[in-house]
Amino acid sequence: MKRIYPREEVCIACRLCEVHCLVAHSKSKDIIKAYKRETPRALPRIRMEAKGAVSFAVSCRHCDEPSCVHACLTGAMKKDPVTGIVTVDTEKCVGCWTCVLFCQYGAINPDIERGVATKCDLCPHLKEPACVTNCPNEALLLIEEPSHV
Length: 149
What we know:
Blueprint: E1 2-6, H1 16-24, H2 31-36, E2 47-51, E3 54-58, H3 67-71, E4 77-79, E5 86-88, H4 98-102, E6 109-111, E7 116-118, H5 130-133, E8 140-144
Antiparallel strand pairs: 1-8, 2-3, 4-5, 6-7
């Protein structure tokens, strides 16, 4: 199971993780078009938190026992038994935000404009998640963990 781990000791709060995540999940995959021309605009699936000198990125932990999946009223949240990745089926999501309330990490975001939940999907269309690849300080690490099944 792959997971993204933040390293607050080297995070400089540049927010490039958010920028590159948004672009990776945009229709055009182009930074200018993604921010200036696409509507509705894609949302980043990672969020940078900062308070004083401490900053780090918050994203889905793809939990072994994800409370968001258990809480989902429609079955839109699922955990892949092979990869361990927790995903949102936007066709089934009704925007009730129960998953948002149950996520203990605050890693699920409501996309108000589309009426669906959004969260990190580890960028399955890329070799490595966009946030990890583009972090200038290597404050985000993609780590393979043994399965706890």
